[in-house]
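Researcher: Here's a chain I'd like modeled. Treat it as a single chain, no partners, no ligands.
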Amino acid sequence: LTSEFRRAERYAAPLSLLLVDLDRFRSLNETFGHQWGDHLLQESARGLRSLLREIDMVARFGGEEFAVLLPETDAAAALSVATRVRAMIETVPARLSETPGAAAWEAELKPRLTASIGVASCPHEGTATRGQLLAAAESALRRAKDEGRNRAVLFSSQPEVSGDAAGRQSISGTGAAKPGDDPAGESAFCFGQPTR
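Model: Modeled as a single isolated chain. Structure tokens:
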């Protein structure tokens, strides 16, 4: 993070950070066992790498979290990537169906494996240091979880009004993308050749 942040500053290039949290992972781990939890993490990591460019970096960041660093990627493109990552996480159980003993497990787990994602970018007001960039992504991740999980939320230092499906409004400091949304448009970001 430090070297990429310095490079972004030096060349005035955008840099984005995604914090990807597998929703209710601890509960799934306890219900289905640590071996299945390991399979979920491994397949999630493989799926992340397959979506990213060679210059992007992914690392495990805590028990059920991944950090994804996207050099030369602005906020709109990062939110588009996050939306695709969220959709990919939902497919992990189907990709694990070849694992011995997965049939009963997959039937129960498939609808429940989702991800909440916090997105932060620089240059942006409120992300002037690498610590602020990380704090902004953590703030956006908290909001994604608070708003019901299974969504990507973009950090914003400016309050904005957003509504939910019932028409209720709230004021917050981040913008949210809900399942199915791709506010940047499908063509806003080219992933290049997937790496495996």
